[in-house]
Specification:
single chain, alpha/beta, seven-stranded parallel sheet, 11 helices, globular
Length: 321
């Protein structure tokens, strides 16, 4: 059906950090929504992630989220009705090595964006993580007490508080391990296992150890993007969407389980060895399952089966072409 809403009348949704794993999916979902106008920001136009962002040039703006004057100019120019913050440092090991840089993007940036959004009357959705919990008392509702084990979890928890304090029209969506269409294998902790799984199937290869201790709930980014779209539309319809919300798939698995499913999807006989004790240099929680009942009670529910989504990723990955 043709779009009957004038572009002048369509609210602008600003997606900050649209070239990343989640940002691309969110931007694509909002761009398809005929009642909205999308503006998606990218930091490196020539980056692999940006090149996968299939949007017209007029829907893309170059932005370093840490550049405060540029951020303010962008808000002045586009005057968004809603903002989705996908820019983040989400690699725990990187956060441990450079806590100051992690805090700059995970804490200070959401605070600035929230303050600008409040000035312009825009609703803001910030993305957080299940790593705000210690993993000892799953499932976790929104009112559960956080206890992050690493700097990544701590900076994301601080970022939640900073955003919610900066704007009364803000919402935090906590998410688990994400996977989706990728720019390269390393972009997700799911697909980052592919090279090792493939290597283990070569003749004479040694078995590859895989974590069989920590439980994860890998969640498909296009599903998350539809959740974010629905929450955005709910706000624009005058229904309150503030505070903390949780979203997660309901398929528990360890990295060892994921590796076995990758091997099955590729049709290879991988040599994998389960590691039943935590070995990561950066502390990670055991089971941070997020209880998403509160969002599902709104009639929002998307659940692409893991194996179905995995086959899509493996088929479409740039390295597979």
């Amino acid at each position: 059906m043709p779009n009957q809403i004038s572009p002048i009348d369509r609210p602008t949704i600003l997606v900050i950090g649209a070239s990343g794993l989640l940002g691309r999916a969110v931007a694509a979902s909002l761009f398809r929504e005929p009642s909205l106008t999308l503006l998606a920001t990218i930091r490196h136009p020539q980056g692999a992630g940006a090149k996968l962002l299939a949007l017209p040039p007029e829907n893309i703006a170059e932005l370093d989220v840490l550049d405060e004057p540029a951020l303010e100019r962008l808000f002045e120019t586009c005057r968004p009705a809603a903002v989705v913050i996908c820019a983040a440092e989400r690699r725990p090991d990187v956060c441990e090595r450079d806590p100051a840089a992690a805090r700059a993007i995970n804490v200070a940036a959401p605070a600035r964006i929230g303050a600008l959004a409040a000035r312009f009357g825009a609703w803001t959705l910030g993305i957080s993580t299940d790593y705000v919990f210690d993993g000892n008392a799953a499932p976790y509702g929104e009112d559960a007490t956080p206890n992050p084990l690493n700097i990544y979890g701590r900076t994301k928890l601080e970022g939640e508080a900073a955003l919610l304090a900066a704007s009364p029209l803000s919402c935090v969506l906590r998410l688990p391990l994400l996977f989706g269409p990728i720019a390269d294998w390393s972009e997700s902790a799911v697909t980052s296992l592919v090279p090792a799984v493939v290597a283990s199937a070569r003749p004479g290869a040694d078995a590859v150890g895989m974590d069989a201790w920590a439980i994860r709930y890998p969640t498909w980014t296009p599903d998350v993007a539809q959740v974010i779209r629905d929450l955005t539309l709910r706000h624009l319809a005058g229904k309150s969407v503030t505070g903390i919300r949780h979203w997660s798939s309901e398929e528990p698995m360890t990295k060892y389980d994921i590796a076995q499913r990758i091997a099955a999807a590729l049709g290879i006989d991988a040599s994998l060895a389960p590691i039943t004790q935590p070995t990561d240099a950066t502390p990670r929680p055991y089971d941070c399952h997020l209880d998403a009942a509160r969002v599902r009670a709104l009639g929002i529910d998307y659940a692409t089966p893991f194996d179905t989504a995995l086959r899509t990723v493996l088929r479409d990955a740039p390295q597979a072409r």
